[in-house]
Specification:
The complex is a heterodimer. Chain A is an alpha/beta fold. Chain A is about 30% helix and about 30% strand. The chains are: A alpha/beta, B mainly alpha.
Chain lengths: ~260, ~325
């Protein structure tokens, strides 16, 4: 299912954060959302998830997000916020199981099918071996992977993830991105994921959307968007850019002088 | 422990304590005579003691305890704060104020229903204020702060009523009532409060999924299809009904709603929804036990159960705070 935004404008306590944004994430695509702090990445993800009201239209397939009930949204769009709260010492299994809430009838427990989906989600983010541990006792990176598994277990055609890779070790950053690619493959899901690691974004995302000051500064394939010019204009950095067999390699080398 | 096993154990415990509550009291009445008086009739004194004194007392212990326990569990889950308790949204304090105003105005003598009616009116005011605040798209923190403000204001007005009280006897009545007790209540009090409490329990149980989803904070809960404004309303109204109706007939009984969820939580899978009913059952057991203890600790002068629960509950609360500080560092 395709998720689109047309001229999305959002105000947060009177200040305009998004100035008319167009985004289009097709099924099968993993789209990376890049931009400096305060560019509006999280706000855009929240607006797409229907968490904050905004002007403009968010479309899910051929329907508008506004026309969907909360329960329907829960079965169509999973949202993984940056806030990694786990309020109670639930076991990892239980945390991931809560991802099945939108699919469960009132008062019903998890079906064998639900449990299989949760198990698969835990394997995607490499937390299956932690299943019985209280989630609150895990390290920050492990908790992040557990919460990502929770969002994956929601099994929705659209997944919006806000910095899912931050705080993860390099191997698990790539595990996470590989999981997103697998989940998107065969046009099963449309995935929009905000990232700060440029190389991670360049190598694992099909397309990149770069935000700056609440506007789309660049949009396209990693090759098209991650150029010395855009990195200077959007992030104010110089970078060493190279490529190998699998894609781009980017390393920030310094701060660009003020123009 | 599986949820059904935990609940069964708690029900057995409640049955024992309920029987104990019926059979223990200042009147010299043997267990057999007591049971005969309760079920079969017989000697008039035994019938009156059992049916009009001890039975309402035990039933109130059961339903008020259940309300306090389930409300404590619901509020802790809802606020993701293990230190939350039913009095937090201001309902207990305003209900107490309503009752105190009835004493103060001298209406208490007019009818035995005047007092609970005043307390319910007080609880209703708290609910309306909280609802007016919750209706605007507010956060949970605003709700807590509004509850704290409401409690302080009601406390201040209660003190004012005590201060201006026309005669010492009225002050004594007010203070005695504020201490909280389930003694000397009648079946009328049970029938008055039970439907309101049951409605509150139903509202709380209907929000159990929202409580689970809120484990991850409000943003994730909403993305899981939770209608947060509705869940907020259900929980606030449910707690107000259950605790307001309880305070209306018993006065303020503190700390049960705070302590019980902590005692029960380690026995569950720690999911907020699976804590609700066991916590209610645990609250009923604890209030029945505290009420029995209030009768036998100082036999010559019966304690008010609210004093006893506060004496046990406040140190427990301190210990919780100390422990959560240790965990935070």
């Amino acid at each position: 299912m395709r998720i689109t935004a047309k001229s999305l404008k959002t105000k947060l306590s009177g200040r305009t954060v998004l100035h008319g944004i167009d985004v289009d994430v097709a099924p099968g695509a993993v789209v990376g959302l890049l931009g400096p702090n305060g560019a509006g990445k999280s706000t855009l993800l929240r607006a797409l998830a229907g968490q904050i009201s905004s002007e403009g239209v968010v479309g899910l397939g051929d329907r508008s997000l506004d026309a969907l009930s909360l329960a329907e949204r829960g079965r169509l769009v999973a949202y993984l916020p940056q806030d990694r709260t786990i309020g109670w010492p639930l076991s990892v299994e239980k945390v991931v199981g809560l991802g099945r809430l939108p699919w469960r009838a009132f008062g019903k427990g998890l079906s064998p099918e639900d449990l299989a989906i949760c198990r698969a989600a835990m394997e995607e983010t490499d937390v299956a071996h932690l299943a019985a541990r209280p989630a609150t006792e895990l390290s920050g990176g492990e908790q992040a992977r557990v919460l990502a598994a929770r969002a994956i277990a929601q099994d929705t055609p659209v997944l919006l993830a806000d910095e899912p890779a931050s705080g993860l070790d390099p191997a698990h950053q790539m595990t996470m991105m590989a999981a997103f690619r697998r989940l998107a493959s065969g046009k099963r899901r449309a995935i929009l994921v905000s990232l700060h690691d440029l190389t991670l974004a360049a190598r694992w995302c099909d397309r990149i959307v770069m935000l700056k000051d609440g506007r789309v500064a660049a949009e396209g394939t990693p090759e098209e968007t991650m150029t010395a010019e855009t990195l200077r204009d959007v992030f104010g950095i110089t970078a060493w850019i190279d490529r190998d067999d699998c894609g781009l390699v980017l390393a920030p080398t310094g701060l660009a002088g003020s123009p | 422990m599986s949820p059904s096993r935990l609940s069964s154990l708690l029900i057995v415990l409640i049955l024992l304590l309920f029987a104990g509550s019926l059979l223990i009291g200042p009147a010299a009445l043997g267990p057999l005579d007591g049971l005969k008086g309760l079920f079969a009739g017989g000697e008039e004194a035994a019938v009156i003691i059992m049916r009009e004194v001890r039975l309402p007392r035990a039933l109130l212990g059961l339903i008020v305890g259940f309300s306090l326990g389930i409300c404590g569990a619901a509020l802790q889950g809802f606020l993701r704060n293990p230190l939350a308790e039913p009095g937090l949204i201001g309902v207990s304090a305003t209900a107490s104020l309503g009752a105190v105003l009835i004493f103060y105005s001298g209406l208490a003598g007019a009818s035995m229903l005047a007092l609970p009616a005043g307390a319910l009116a007080g609880a209703l005011v708290a609910v309306l204020v909280i609802l007016a605040i919750a209706a605007g798209n507010t956060t949970t923190l605003t709700l807590i702060l509004a509850g704290v403000a409401l409690s302080s204001l009601s406390g201040a007005l209660t003190s004012l009523a005590l201060n201006l009280s026309p005669n010492p006897f009225a002050s004594y009545e007010i203070i005695f009532w504020l201490l909280g007790s389930i003694k000397d209540r009648s079946m009328v009090h049970v029938w008055l409060s039970l439907p309101l409490m049951a409605a509150g329990w139903a509202l709380i149980l209907s929000s159990s999924r929202a409580l689970d989803a809120l484990t991850f904070g409000e943003a994730t809960a909403a993305s899981l299809g939770t209608n947060l404004p509705r869940a907020r309303l259900s929980i606030v109204c449910g707690v107000a009904l259950a605790v307001g109706a309880g305070t209306a007939v018993t006065g303020a009984i503190g700390f049960i709603g705070l302590v019980v969820p902590h005692l029960i939580r380690p026995l569950t899978d720690r999911m907020p929804s699976s804590l609700l009913i066991p916590s209610g059952l645990g609250g009923a057991a604890l209030l029945l036990a505290a009420d029995i203890a209030a009768r036998i600790v100082v036999p010559a002068r019966e304690l008010n159960v609210g004093v006893l629960t506060a004496l046990i509950g406040a140190p427990f609360f301190l210990w919780l705070v100390a422990r959560s500080r240790r965990e935070a560092t």
